[in-house]
Amino acid sequence: MKTREIRRMPLCAVLVIVGISSAHPPGSEKIPLALGVAQDGRRGWEGILKREGYPFDTVAQLQEAAKNGKLASVRWSALYLLAARAGRDALPVFKEALTDQDPETRTTAARLLGAFGDRSGIEGLRRDLALAPRQGEPDPNLVKLQGDQLRRAKSKDFTLLRHAIDAANALSELGDASGLELAARVALESPVGLFRMGAITTLANLAVHAASDKSVLAGKAIDPEAVLVAVAQSETNPRVLARLRNDTAKLPRERSRKIYEKLIASPHPTEKDREMMKSILKLYDREAKKQSKDQSAEPKKQ
Questions:
Q1: DSSP state for residue 233 in the 8-state scheme
Q2: Where are the domains positioned within the chain?
């Protein structure tokens, strides 16, 4: 199904997020995702700094690595560690990192600022969102290239699209729907499973924000929930479907039920995931019956 019919984060951060989603039951998230990644991924971030020879025992050392680390992975790892160790005291460093030359570092800074309620990274994220080659559509100029030129051009497009998906994801965490169209296209049409996973998370975040604030999707022609339902019907990769299952848990129950039902009916999820979703729906039913029973037992007002 085509879109007209209806972060990536750094890879190690993506793996941390998958771990968080799998480890905690629906509704257990009590802190912003970026801070959860910062705290739960501390060993990974420290490992990157250690491997590259950067000390990380003090906040001052982390600030130095975040500002002057030679590798982008060092700089954004130091930002996550600062979030975990220094909290709000690291906000000035995050703000400075919004102008970093590396898109992943800029996105990390904006994401961490947003976790502390600071939305000053939004404009930069929107600029990085515009890096997407033709907003995810194939570039007709590529047909003119051959050999190494074609490979380099495709690699550049791949990298730009990855950064744009990162930006769309971070924007969605802040309740900004600028990346909605790109996320819908990628979720339904990208051949790259990791890209589809990032797009699914973007769509789920926007659906959650829109459930409590209708202005989030004001002027948007695409319904993120409808796209998620379409993904549930068309996706074949079990890992991508597992991401959809986890992200669906963020939605209000009356909205998540339809997606779970489509996933259960699909032949593509693993049996373990299918049984897990059936259990979730049974839990929904039990709690709905209990709520109905409690309400009927309440004394009627005279």
A1: H
A2: 7-16+31-120
